[in-house]
Amino acid sequence: MSDPHRQTFLQQLSDEQSLPPQAEAELDLQHNTALIPLDDRVVLEVRGPDSDRFLQGQASASTAHATSTIAPPAVFCTPKGRAIANAQLIKLSPECYWLLLERSIADALHQHLGKYAAFYKTELTLRDDLAVAGLAGHQVGNVLENTVPELPQAMWGVRVSADEELAITRHPHDTMRLILIASHDRLATLFKTTSAELTLAPAALWQRLDIEAGLLWLDELQREKWLPQMFNWEALAGISFKKGCYTGQEVVARAHYRGQVKKRLMRLSIPGNEALTPGTDVMDATREKSLGEVVLSAPTTGDHVELLAIMTLKEDMPPLSINGETAQLMTLPYALERLDPETLSD
How far is it, in rounded angstroms, from Cα 65 to Cα 43? Predict the structure, then answer.
């Protein structure tokens, strides 16, 4: 559904001289509102009369949790419980859902779900024609108040326009941050009216906010490497332990109830000013033994790089190092315990 001649929303803003000024990843979000093109995200659309029943048998979240105000996180697994992709489940209409996920893994999920979709009255479409953009900052609500009648306020909250062509969802972080999904024309029109109050920022800023939120979106490098609990998905309301069966459910549930998860997503910081290569080892500095690997990183202020790593749990964590630099464990903004998606509300 992609048109090679279509202008992106940024190109349209540039042509109309409405493009916001460019900023670095260290933008002060207390006083500025960042506009961040999220070209690494894409929508996989599930449409048809059986879409609800189809997704119910595949996603870790119940379709009953996807409402007009909540778009729950979900994960799609192999029969052995390994995560193929995690996504956000946005209900556009009774017969249409948008799965928001990392672009590099979208084809793999499309192919995986396609094996099961053949038995349902539902169609899967990668919506390359849709634009995905992030807004972040404490003033986001004020910036949009005259153009969007109602915004989501809670984690994983969502609002869908009456014409079902625009979805706005709030992602975890103390700073308000929204993802907007619509056609490039629709987003260009929306941002044109607010461009004077926006600052264009790089994707590295959004990555840093994901790291601060302890939130990992699996990419192709991570496909089928981890159980969902290893990237703390149940602590972010990404797994329902009360719904019926879905592919991989038995393994995921067994790991939860038997306490068999020995690896977890952790947040760390090291000196430096360049992002690390995914897969870089996190070492036990006293024994020169790998305890895990970096999965996401982004430079931050003060010549430091913050990162997420999936690591083996230890009762007493030893001193850590990455590429010879001392690594400091940082606090996650949530407890490593189950958060039931049934409790989400907005």
Answer: 19
Spatial distance between the Cα atoms of 55 and 46, rounded to a whole number of angstroms? 8
pLDDT of residue 15: 76
Q: Which CATH class is domain 262-330?
A: mainly beta
Mention every residue, 6+ apart, whose C-beta is less than 8 A from residue 111. none
pLDDT at 20: 72
Beta strands 177-183 and 167-170: pairing type?
antiparallel
193-236 confidence digits (pLDDT tens): 888 899 999 999 999 999 999 999 999 999 999 999 999 999 99
3-state DSSP helix/strand/coil percent for the chain, to nearest 5? 25, 30, 45
Task: Note the residue count of the chain.
Answer: 346
CA distance 171 to 121: 31
How is 10-69 classified by DSSP, letter by letter? Answer: HHHHHHTT-PPPB--TT--TTT--EEEE-TTEEEEEEESTTHHHHHHTTBSS-GGG--SS
Second-level CATH architecture of 9-212: 2-Layer Sandwich (3.30)
d(CA 196, CA 324): 44
What stretch of H or E contains 282? Answer: strand 281-284
Contact 70, 157 (CB under 8 A): yes
- Annotated domain spans of the chain: 9-212, 262-330
Q: How far apart are CA 22 and CA 266, in angstroms?
A: 31
Q: Residue 201: which of 209, 193, 211 has the closest Cα?
A: 209
C-alpha to C-alpha distances, 91 to 40, 156, 167, 272, 340, nearest whole angstrom: 21, 12, 9, 41, 19
Nearest to 110 by CA among 97, 95, 123: 123
CB 97 within 8 A of CB 90: yes
Sequence-distant (6+) residues with CB within 8 A of 82 are 224, 225, 226, 227, 248
Cα–Cα distance measured from residue 188 to residue 87, given in angstroms and rounded to the nearest whole number? 25
Half-sphere exposure of 82 (CA within 13 A, CB side): 9
Q: What is the pTM (predicted TM-score) of this model?
A: 0.94
